[in-house]
Amino acid sequence: MDGITIPWYAAIIGLIFAVFLILKKINPVYSLFLGAIIGCLIGGASLSNTVDILVTGTQSIMGTAIRVLAAGMLAGVMMESGAAESIAHAIVNKLGSNKAIFSLALSTMIITAVGVFIPVAVLIVAPIALSVGKQTGISKLALLTALSGGGKAGNIISPNPNTIAAANGFKLDLSNVMIAGFIPAIFGLATAVLIASLIKKKGGKVKDSDIQEKLEKELLPLRKALIAPVLSIVLLLINPIGTMLHIQVLADLKIDAMYILPFASIVGTIAMGQASQIREYSKSGIYRVTDTVLILIGAGAIAGLISVSDLSKQVVHLISITGISGTFLAPISGILMGLAVGSTSTAVILATGSFGHAILETGTNSLAAAVMVHTGATVIDSVPQGNYFHITANSMNMSIKERMKVIPYEICVGGVMTIVATILYGFILK
């Protein structure tokens, strides 16, 4: 494999072919592998070299895959123990119906931020939102805009697979990427609340048939529900806090999500008095992240193709002759990949693996690149070819036509976060 250089056009053809297969509902993992193989063969690689390129590419993402598996443990505990539901109820009850839209958006943001995957976060809060909507007359269009917008804001500051992929794609600590996404996330939350408030009377209302009668169950006390997520976040923040405060002992600690997230999950489960359920929670968690890990492996194959091509050089050259700031390559790559695959995490994986090197060659620093790619991936990721679109539609009992009407508002939320991230990290703090 030494000395092989795949022409840029072969890499592009391979990537486009993979995206085409994904859009045709072919399994994303096989689509990515087939795209990588096609690109290698078109580029002149032998069958033996093609295997070497794909193996090398998949090996490069193993660190990310392990951390995603670790994140699954926390997600399983938060979802299966009822901790996430308790947090949502506490926020909505505390803020009351007068601040219904804000409380629903904030609930979804916080639940996603503490490690629950965004589709699941919306599923958890949706029944509460429908009940609130029935009482207040807020439309389902506005309710889902608040939930999805809040979820997007929380997703860019969470220890979820998308953030892990953004961090590892640019060789950064997860905590640094989480912290860097905080300001864009606040703007995203504010945008979601503002838009949902403006359209709260627009669209279909919540009907009695939308609200399922459920047996009342005892919610987990909030103090117990918060233990696992708070512990994980505090431990992840030790290193950056030590760096900012110049406390060398803390700064030298190499805290990694690989062991912090499972540790916090186990401690939280024991503190909740549910130690006997650890096995079931971990089983649920690993089930939730299996698809993401498999997609990671497929994306690694595409990354292997891109890494041995001259695509990055060609992209940097194109940017230089057009006069466009190379900074924009980061958010644009995230936006395009999000549109192609309809998934934030998959979009980040593909964008970092395919364009990460080219982005850095434009002079953009790693942290800025990670945040801009990450926020860019949230702009048009709720399209019909992705699972998120259908999961959220079902959670709110919306038809496909009704769900489609939410997309422009979701684009606004993701767009604002991307603009803020690009201005802040691409230009102001460059």
Per DSSP E runs of 2 or more residues, the count of β-strands stands at 0
Low-confidence stretches: none
Most strands sheet = none
Radius of gyration: 21 Å
Helix proportion:
over 70%
What integer is the average pLDDT?
90
Summing up helix and strand content along with how strands pair, one would put the structural category as: mainly alpha
Order of helices and strands: HHHHHHHHHHHHHHHHHHHHHHH
The count of helical stretches stands at 23
First and last CA, distance: 37 Å
Per the principal axes of the C-alpha atoms, what is the gross shape? globular
β-strand amount: under 5%
GO molecular function, one term: gluconate transmembrane transporter activity
Keywords: Membrane, Transmembrane, Transmembrane helix
GO cellular component, one term: plasma membrane
Transmembrane segments: 6-23, 30-48, 60-79, 100-130, 177-199, 226-251, 257-273, 285-308, 328-351, 406-428
Structural notes for this entry:
The chain crosses the membrane at residues 6-23, 30-48, 60-79, 100-130, 177-199, 226-251, 257-273, 285-308, 328-351, 406-428. Keywords: Membrane, Transmembrane, Transmembrane helix. With 430 residues, this protein is an all-alpha fold. Helix content is 74%, strand content 0%. The chain is built from 23 helices and no strands. α6 packs parallel to α8 (140-155). The longest helix is centred in the last third of the chain and has 30 residues, at 278-307. The protein is globular and about 65 Å long. The mean pLDDT is 90.
Please write out the topology.
Elements lengths: L7 H16 L4 H15 L4 H13 L2 H19 L2 H13 L4 H14 L4 H19 L3 H16 L5 H9 L4 H7 L1 H17 L23 H4 L1 H18 L3 H5 L4 H15 L6 H30 L3 H12 L6 H13 L2 H18 L4 H11 L10 H9 L4 H5 L2 H22 L2
Helix pairs in contact: 1-2, 2-3, 2-16, 3-16, 4-9, 4-15, 4-16, 5-6, 5-7, 6-7, 6-8, 6-11, 7-8, 7-21, 8-11, 8-23, 9-10, 9-19, 9-20, 11-23, 13-15, 16-19, 17-19, 18-19, 18-20, 19-20, 20-23
